[in-house]
Amino acid sequence: MELKCPKCGSKNIVKNGYVFGCQRHICKSCKYQFTKLSPAGKPIMLQFICHELYLSGMSMRKIASIVGVTAQSVSRWIKKWHGAYMAEIGNHATLFIASKDNLDDCLGIREKDKLLVLSAELPSQAKYNIVIHLP
Known about the structure:
- This protein is an alpha+beta fold.
- It has helices spanning 44-55, 60-67, 71-88, 103-107; strands at residues 13-19, 22-27, 33-34, 114-121, 127-134.
- A hairpin with a 5-residue loop joins strand 2 and strand 3.
């Protein structure tokens, strides 16, 4: 794996000692020092799932226990997503809980439409599916 500087994107990286047991690197181009290469926080998809569960009527504490994070994190994510969601969709959007039998009717799907189904498992072993209608 070739390292890149998170600040300038240069590949001119060398090792620069250890800090708290982690390897430190320095960029020779911009002199930026860094240790952590992976992004912090939870995946954006997990945050989206929390927002969708909230819109379906589930409480923040229940969502937090299902997803495996704190209720405060869920609250922050919902505030972030909900503002953008309401600006884009409006207050009149309706969510449906669909079974296999009425999925076509709920989503207004015609025979030639394409669907993308995302399936995953949360840390609490709960399973979820998200259906996306492709144009």
